[in-house]
Amino acid sequence: MSQTAGPKIVGVCGSLREGSHTRTALGYALGEAERLGGRGELLDLREFDLPVFDPDAQETADVRRLKATIRNADALVLATPMYHGSYSSPLKTAIDYCGFDEFEHKTVGLLGVSGGSFPINALEHLRSVCRALDAWVTPYHAAVPNSHQHFEDGALVDDDLRERVETLGERVVRYARIEEIDPSSFESRENVGAND
Questions:
Q1: Domain residue spans of the chain
Q2: Quick check: helix, strand or coil at residue 145?
Q3: Is it the case that residue 1 has pLDDT exceeding 80?
Q4: Contact yes or no for 45/13 (Cβ under 8 A)
Q5: At 33, is the secondary structure helix, strand, or coil?
Q6: CA distance 63 to 8
Q7: In three state form, how does the secondary structure of 70-136 look?
Q8: What pLDDT digit, counting tens, does each position of 33-84 carry?
Q9: Half-sphere exposure (CA, 13 Å, Cβ side) for 152?
Q10: Regarding predicted confidence, which is higher, 135 or 186?
Q11: What is the distance between the alpha carbons of residues 77 and 50, in angstroms, rounded to a whole number?
Q12: Distance between CA 121 and CA 35 in Å, rounded?
């Protein structure tokens, strides 16, 4: 990764829905990252054929492309709708195909979108998964609760929520190349499945 160009920020959208509020919100985070000199890229899981992870299955071209895109990013924004109190299965499957090579010491920002109340569980579950892969998750995360009230015609119309999502984009650019790498977490030392 070039140290002269702006950091490459990859946003992974965990929603497959055509009119996804999660994808729309992620666009605001990536847009702010680009405005501040980052190079934003949307990784749209609708464009990948990712069956449920099977460690015995042969790695496909889509899996190799997914892993390479994540590995070559300076920072990630993982964006998810909240499904049944947690993050989405498409995002879980994408992360399951990855490991330390893709996530270790990577800056990760988290974005949760919910049709109901604040999606704190989805964000905390993602934070735990990222810790198990020794990623560096920004302390700041963004959430859009009650999403049906805040989007109109493909736009996030609530100024406060839009500012929060854009702040996430600013944070991932600011910390994309964080100099201080934390030591391995307890969770990662116990994460032997990621090394299988």
A1: 8-187
A2: coil
A3: no
A4: yes
A5: helix
A6: 20
A7: HHCCCEEEEEEECECCECCHHHHHHHHCCCHHHHCCCEEEEEEECCCCCCHHHHHHHHHHHHHCCCE
A8: 999 999 999 999 999 999 999 999 999 999 999 999 999 999 999 999 999 9
A9: 5
A10: 135
A11: 19
A12: 30
Do 79 and 12 touch, CB atoms closer than 8 A? yes
CA angle 40, 43, 47 (to 5 degrees): 145
At the fourth CATH level, the homologous superfamily of domain 8-187 is Flavodoxin domain (3.40.50.360)
Enter the pTM of the model.
Answer: 0.91
Give the integer Cα–Cα distance in Å for 13 and 76: 11
Cα torsion at 16, 22, 25, 30 (round to 10°)?
-50
Q: Report residue 88 as tokens.
A: 């989405």
Q: What is the rounded distance in angstroms from the CA atom of residue 126 to the CA atom of residue 190? A: 17
CA angle 112–115–119, rounded 5-degree value:
35
Strand 155-156 versus strand 151-152 pairing type: antiparallel
- Of 79, 98, 77, 97, whose CA–CA distance to 87 is shortest? 79
Percent of the chain residues topping a pLDDT of 70: 92
Residues 6+ apart with CB under 8 A from 20: 13, 81
Cβ atoms 134, 184 nearer than 8 A:
yes
> CB–CB of 68/25 below 8 Å?
no
Long-range contacts of residues 149-152, Cβ cutoff 8 Å, at least 24 apart: 150/21, 151/21, 151/24
